[in-house]
């Protein structure tokens, strides 16, 4: 409730400011039109046109910043030429409409509160009149609240028509993002396959080869003591091979993620780390499996990098879900200097981008390193 009220107040202030700037834009349109008519066919006409275009660009930039601040709109920079002039010359109608809606809202609020102040201040002694006026005022106020959002939406669409990006440009941008994220996911999958192959070849496979050699030597040994010693070494090698195989399987996908969710999987990350990991997981709802998996791999890779490269003695992992977004923060007290374009972090960025999320890496030279991931859950 508080969030919706704050949003409505912000939009209302934006519409109010837009109504004030509409007066300036109306005056600008009238003066500019008369100026162009007066200088038509004269040598000073080009200079007048340049001044009008410059003024229109400044007004359009002001409107762009207003909508970005109050409506959260993402608009490109005001274009040069007649596009900015056409926008400013036609935008005043939307702004004045917002002023009319806000004036009606004040009128509705006054009538809605008539039951409170009308009896004591205006000395209106008719309960029926007070009741009907209050109900009508509440209904008018409700319509004006909805109308405020409508004016803000019309204002934004009008700006997009002239300043961009329009619906077609937004679609092209979205297609480009999807193509880039798909290519990133394919590359991340290839990197993961190469890493798994390398872990199996350099680790488990070498252990199994050594195990076979030990068993062969034990079979050829004539002395019972030597054979028993070789079998003991083979047994130890088997245990090491099993441990490395479990390690590879855990890196591919942890079973705890399906059994206990993200909190349980992060607990395994903390337990297996060579340095202390302080974990705080505040998840009131269960995020989607894909978001949990990506968050787990981000945390696991960040902790591994902290252990191997940063010289950290403590890692803090914080996971929480707010407004259908899973927020993950991993911070270590190491020496910093992590490269976001490195193989591990770049692969994580591609994983996060595949879910339309964002990954931020802040790692100054003297530390600490802070990795933040935001993953949509809607």
Written account of the structure:
- With 378 residues, the protein is of the alpha+beta class.
- The chain is 72% helix and 9% strand.
- The chain is built from ten helices and five strands; from the N terminus they run H-H-H-H-H-H-H-H-E-H-E-E-H-E-E.
- The chain has helices at residues 2-38, 45-70, 82-112, 114-120, 127-163, 167-220, 224-252, 255-272, 289-310, 343-354; strands spanning 277-282, 315-322, 325-332, 358-362, 369-376.
- The protein has a five-stranded mixed beta sheet.
- Strand 1, helix 9 and strand 2 form a beta-alpha-beta unit.
- The longest helix has 54 residues, at 167-220.
- The two termini are 20 Å apart.
- The relative contact order is 0.07.
- The mean pLDDT is 80.
What does the secondary structure layout of this molecule look like, with pairings?
Blueprint: H1 2-38, H2 45-70, H3 82-112, H4 114-120, H5 127-163, H6 167-220, H7 224-252, H8 255-272, E1 277-282, H9 289-310, E2 315-322, E3 325-332, H10 343-354, E4 358-362, E5 369-376
Parallel strand pairs: 1-2
Antiparallel strand pairs: 2-3, 3-5, 4-5
Q: Tally of extended strands?
A: 5
Outline the biggest β-sheet. Answer: 5 strands, mixed
Q: How many DSSP helices?
A: 10
Structural class: alpha+beta
**Gyration radius from CA atoms, angstroms:** 33 Å
